[in-house]
Amino acid sequence: MEWYNLDKAESMAVAGMNALSKFEDKLQCLTLLTKISLARGNLDNTARLLGEVEQLEHSHSYHHDWIANADQVRIFYWQMTNDVSAVRNWLIQNPSPVSDKNHFTQVQWRNIARSRILLEEYHEAKAILDNLIETAEKFSLISDLNRALIVRNRLYFLQGEKELAQQDLIQALKLTRQTNFISAFVIEGM
Asked: Among 144, 154, 149, which Cα is nearest to 188's?
């Protein structure tokens, strides 16, 4: 989902919701609608949709990749509302992935790193991000490398490490030519 295609993404998510007969199968579409609402800055609607996402999660069992995507929206929402209590509770209740060698575990590890940043646990966040970047480079996970660099750029910026932040920003911008993840820069700047 890119910020310049929100209407198209929304219509596709709604079409997906309408096409799926079982309510429990709609988590991914509902998560996308929640992300779109958040990108539009509609925090009240985002909170309502997150409630629906959580209701689905509590009543059904989902693969960890679906949960990671839903957690990502939650973390962004808490970042925007500065809800450190929710972040702290989420970290306590959710186990860390055993690996970081695929896209979905990378997503969840970035969620954890973002949470650590929100709690100002910068050392822990940096260790996670350094590992993610090393793994992404080793296994050529280009989109994950791009996103991890953007998150680490934000971490360095918050720590006043302007030179390191600039290095990560330049590397991430170069990778954006391959990934076209323009909105990732906007989201991390929230």
From this structure: 154
Length of the chain: 190
Q: Which long-range contacts (CB under 8 A, 24 or more apart) does 164-168 make?
A: none
CB 109 within 8 A of CB 126: no
Domain harbouring 86, CATH code? 1.25.40
What is d(CA 95, CA 172) in angstroms, rounded to the nearest whole number?
29
User: How does pLDDT run across 131-190, given as a tens digit for each residue?
Assistant: 999 999 999 999 999 999 999 999 999 999 999 999 999 999 888 877 666 555 445 543
Of 34, 62, 90, the one marking the end of a domain is: 62
Same domain, yes or no: 80 and 10: no
| Percentages of the chain per state (helix, strand, coil), in multiples of 5 | 80, 0, 20
Q: Which residue matches tokens 């199968």?
A: 25
The structure's pTM equals 0.89
Tell me, yes or no, whether 48 and 23 share the same domain.
yes
Query: What's the structural domain count of the chain?
Result: 2
